[in-house]
Amino acid sequence: MDMTWNTATSGMCIVFKTWHVQSAGSFVFSLAIVFAIGVGYEYLKRHISQLDAALARRSDDALTRRRYDVLPTSREAPVYVCC
């Protein structure tokens, strides 16, 4: 297959050696599939990024809570009642 810009879509290999375009309809279908794979990949990257940020916030909140519980200024002073 010639690797220069051409308009011959018949017999074109898309992604794998076994994925060949035989007609204009299969070319459009292949184009839609490749586009959907790209959109799905970007959605997955965004979802993983949001999940990572949520886990980092949750971890920071837990660490902050633990630090405040240990600090003596964060607790109220005990009240001792005598007789």
Spell out the blueprint of helices and strands.
Elements: H1 24-70
Family: Belongs to the copper transporter (Ctr) (TC 1.A.56) family. SLC31A subfamily.
GO molecular function: copper ion transmembrane transporter activity
Transmembrane segments: 20-41
Protein described:
GO terms for molecular function: copper ion transmembrane transporter activity. This is Copper transport protein. It is found in: Membrane. The protein has 83 residues and is an all-alpha fold. 57% of the residues lie in helices and 0% in strands. It has one helix and no strands. The N and C termini lie far apart (99 Å). The model has no long low-confidence stretch (mean pLDDT 78).
Highlighted features:
about 80 residues, 1 helix, about 0% strand, mainly alpha, transmembrane
Q: How many DSSP-defined strands?
A: 0
The largest β sheet comes out as:
none
Radius of gyration: 30 Å
**Kindly, what is the distance between the CA atoms of the first and last residues, rounded to a whole number of angstroms?**
99 Å
The percent range for strand residues is under 5%
> What is the ordering of alpha helices and beta strands?
H
- Fraction of residues in H or I helices: 55-70%
Poorly predicted segments: none
Shape: rod-shaped
User: What class would the helix/strand composition place it in?
Assistant: mainly alpha
Number of H- or I-type helical stretches: 1
Whole-number mean pLDDT:
78
Family: Belongs to the copper transporter (Ctr) (TC 1.A.56) family. SLC31A subfamily.
Transmembrane segments: 20-41
Membrane topology: Multi-pass membrane protein
GO molecular function, one term: copper ion transmembrane transporter activity
